[in-house]
Amino acid sequence: MKPITRKIACGAVAASLMMSMLTGAQVFGATLDMGDSSASAVKLKVEPISVSGYTFAGMRDVFSALGYTVEWYGATRTASAQNAKANLNAVFTVNSIVANVNGSTVTLPAAPKIINNSLMIPISIIGDLYNKTAIWNPASDSIVLEPLPEDVTATIIPGYITDKTRIIEYPDALNMVIQTSGVVSTYSDQLTSLETSRPTILDSINVASSPAASVSAMYKLKQLDVNVADNPRNKQIATDQQELKLRSQLTTIAATAMSIQASEEAIRLSQISLTNLKIQEKLGMASAASVVTAQQKLDQSNQSLASSQISLTSQRQALNQMLGLALDSDVAVDFTPDISAMPTNTADSYASSAVAGDITMKMAQEQMDLAQFQYDHYISTDQASLTIARNTYIQAQKTLSDAKTAMDKAVRSAYNAIQQTNATMQTNQISLQTAKDTYRQALVNYSVGANTYFDVENAKYGVLTAEIAIRNTTYALSNQLYAFAKPYLL
Questions:
Q1: Which one-letter DSSP state was computed for residue 162?
Q2: CA dihedral defined by 260, 265, 267, 271, rounded to 10 degrees?
Q3: β-strand pairing of 42-43 with 49-51
Q4: What own/partner pairs with CB < 8 Å and gap ≥ 24 does 262-266 have?
Q5: Does residue 395 share a domain with residue 249?
Q6: Final residue of a structural domain among 120, 147, 174
Q7: Which of 116, 162, 364, 485 sits at a 20 to 30 Å CA gap from 462?
Q8: Coil, strand or helix at 54
Q9: In angstroms, what CA-CA distances link 299 with 180, 270, 272, 293?
Q10: 375 CB contacts (<8 Å, ≥6 apart)?
Q11: 489 burial class (0-12, 13-18, 19+ CB within 10 angstroms)?
């Protein structure tokens, strides 16, 4: 279900809202909108009226527009509305809050009244008959029957994207970042250089003049093989680091863009609130100090928004630099965070697997094996040189042991961080559901005159901020899962 979207002009509409709450002032040019895009709004002949916070509409006017047969019984001062197709029958009594709908007693928020020879009923009952919420929208001068929202969803849109913005698919953006970083060419050149030295080393083995020279040449060959094997591993690590860098930048940009959207909506609501406070001040219902405070709050919000917009510009320039584009390029990357690969095993299991199989562990193991080969095959009567070889081997052992310990710690820490972020996600989802419930209740309260249209808009803003919190958490969790799947990034 699409979200209910309304824009309220800050001045005249706010004044209309305030005055309609304070007086029984009539509103004009009203229509009835069923909230269905396939049905056009119906012009009402009898103008709705607001009395004591409740909006009333002409019974015959409204129900006739909805296809009902309306009858008036003067002797009992009651009126009935029947719709055989919808199997609905409603009976109302003047000055009685008790109505009858399909044979059941229904309590109205306010009693029907005779005003200017028309029976006026509270609009909430109209919505109830259709399992909708009847809303008087002063911005459009209409009674709107809004479906009761089963799933209120705020529209989160990166405000910096326009029709002229170039949208880059994520795989293409990643390739651009990798090419700009020079990772591919750096390791390709390194591999070529390594292989170029192989014939010389092989020749040195064949012409070795002594056992010591032969062992030295063999050691160089083994070192070359290790370096050649490590080349694609280091290339993979560097490439994945570039992807994590891109993902982190896109996350930062998204967070700032969503913050800007929330700020803009908060400013809009603050402007409406400030306008209402000014009206209340003139009516003696608010102090001048409260108006000043509201104005200061609005000014601070505008300053915060301006700061966020500057930050967004800087962040987009940094992204352009990563992509190898001009700093002022108007681009955006189509990136959707993925949180489907949540850990399903224990932290112990993931830590053991990483220690045993991560490519950085393999490289550390190979360096230790290389040092061990040099020490085991060392041929020299020079005790000092032998001690150096032995210490090199011992240090390689320690380096491998330390690497395993650090990897174990990093995986466990990342695992715990993921669990914490996931817990935050669950808390945010509860907050979102609470915000949706609050929004639904605000609609109901407004329909019976228990709150203002501003309260409805403010509740809808709560849904927006709750969904933004979930979106931000989703980005964070997605990046954590990406690194967790590649322990060498931790």
A1: -
A2: 160
A3: unpaired
A4: 262/461, 262/464, 262/465, 262/468, 263/301, 263/304, 263/305, 263/308, 264/159, 264/305, 265/461, 265/464, 266/301, 266/461
A5: no
A6: 147
A7: 162
A8: strand
A9: 42, 10, 14, 10
A10: 389, 390, 392, 393
A11: middle
Q: Which residue has the tokens 């929208």?
A: 137
Last residue of a domain, one of 99, 114, 147: 147
pLDDT tens-digit series, residues 142-170? 787 776 555 556 566 667 888 899 999 99
Cα three-residue angle 82-87-88, rounded to 5 degrees: 45
Domain range for 101 = 12-147
Q: Residue 223: what residue type?
A: Q
Using CA atoms, how far apart are residues 125 and 111, in angstroms rounded to an integer? 11
In a domain, 1, yes or no: no
| Residue 172: CATH number of its domain | 1.20.1600.10
The whole-model pTM stands at 0.70
Same domain, 165 and 216: yes
Q: Are residues 356 and 329 in the same domain?
A: no
Same domain, 98 and 20: yes
Whether 385 and 378 have beta carbons less than 8 Å apart is answered as yes
Residue 150: CB atoms within 10 A of its CB come to 8
Q: What is the DSSP letter of 141?
A: T
Indicate the number of domains in the chain: 3
Is residue 119 located within the same domain as residue 224? no
In the block, which residue shows the tokens 């002409």? 58
CA distances from 166 to 156, 170, 255, 329 (A): 19, 12, 20, 9
Q: Is 39 strand, coil or helix?
A: coil
Give residue-wise pLDDT tens across range 224-255: 999 999 999 999 999 999 999 999 999 999 99
Cβ pair 355, 410 in contact under 8 A: no
User: 450 — phi, psi (to 5°)?
Assistant: -85, -10
Give the C-alpha separation, 322 to 204, whole Å.
Answer: 45
Helix (H) or strand (E) holding 212: helix 211-282
Mean per-residue pLDDT for 110-137?
83
What is the pLDDT at residue 260? Answer: 93
184 and 197 co-located in one domain:
yes
Residue 17 reports pLDDT greater than 60: no
Same-domain status, 317 and 195 = yes
In this structure, the answer to whether residues 324 and 362 fall within a common structural domain is no
Q: What is the pLDDT of residues 357-369, one digit of tens each?
A: 899 999 999 989 9
Tokens of 98: 């008790």
Determine, yes or no, domain membership for 389.
Answer: yes
